[in-house]
Amino acid sequence: MKQESIFDLSGKKALVTGSTEGIGLAIAKTLAIHGSEVVVHGRSSKEKCQEVCAALDKLSGTKSSYVLFDIEEPKGVESLINEINDIDILVINASIQIRSETLEISRKDFDSQVNANLWTTLRLIQVFLPYMLRQKWGRILMVGSVQEVKPSPKMAIYAALKSATANMVANLALQYGKDGVTVNNLAPGVITTGRNEEVLTNEKYAESIRQQIPVGFFGQPDDCAGIALLLCAEAGRYITGQTIYCDGGMSVQ
Questions:
Q1: Is 205 tagged catalytic?
Q2: What pLDDT sits at residue 2?
Q3: 189-226 pLDDT per residue, tens
Q4: Which of 38-66 are b and which e, b meaning 16 or more Cβ less than 10 Å from the residue's Cβ?
Q5: Where are the domains of the chain?
Q6: Exposed e or buried b per residue across 144-165, where buried means at least 16 C-beta atoms within 10 angstroms of its C-beta
Q7: Among residues 66, 131, 158, 238, which one is catalytic?
Q8: Looking at the domain 3-193+221-247, which fold is it?
């Protein structure tokens, strides 16, 4: 392979869920810069999606588009079936995280997280994997969490579901590797996104978490984007079934 082409995504089309902010947005920008047409996903704000599309088009010269659906709704993905079907790269980033004491977890919160973090993941794969198999080329990248190995006491269901999707990655990699489809899991640690903003304003709590990170600081969304590019490009063709942690070393302690 020519070195100048192993990160070139020209002619590829990527769907990145949860890509209007945070890690999803960083990954979407990086894929677009390297030539991929990107389908942006948002939950409900058409205006926010349009803003991101305009920014991606300006960065890359490609033509992006967007879709809206709620990952908490069991039938949310179904709206995509007639909208898009030629996805080469599927990045499953959107998730629901509900903090709660274990004895206080409600059935509603349990169901919301299972629908968003496991069922929607499966349905997205069921919708877009057939096209990848026909093309004999595809990339599926799930965005997991360091909680797969460092579970938070207040996020028992979220952590368990991230472990479940990591297991699914290994399962799918074994099934579809010979068909040219790689399946991997990018597991971030503490990344400064909107999701973590409120809890990290507590300086005592933030410092206690920082002490668990060997590099000594919190990550930024862009720290995850380079790994995503590797796993989605031809450069990562020999990597499948893997969980790669982007956590400042937190998972090894």
A1: no
A2: 57
A3: 999 988 887 778 888 889 988 999 999 999 999 999 99
A4: bbbbbbeeeebbeebbebbeeebebebeb
A5: 3-193+221-247
A6: bbbbbbbbeebbbbbbbbbbbb
A7: 158
A8: Rossmann fold (3.40.50)
Instruction: Specify the pLDDT at position 194.
Output: 81
Structure-token pair, residue 229: 């590019």
Q: Sign of torsion, CA 133 134 136 142?
A: negative
The pLDDT tens digits of the residues spanning 106-142 come to 999 999 999 999 999 999 999 999 999 999 999 999 9
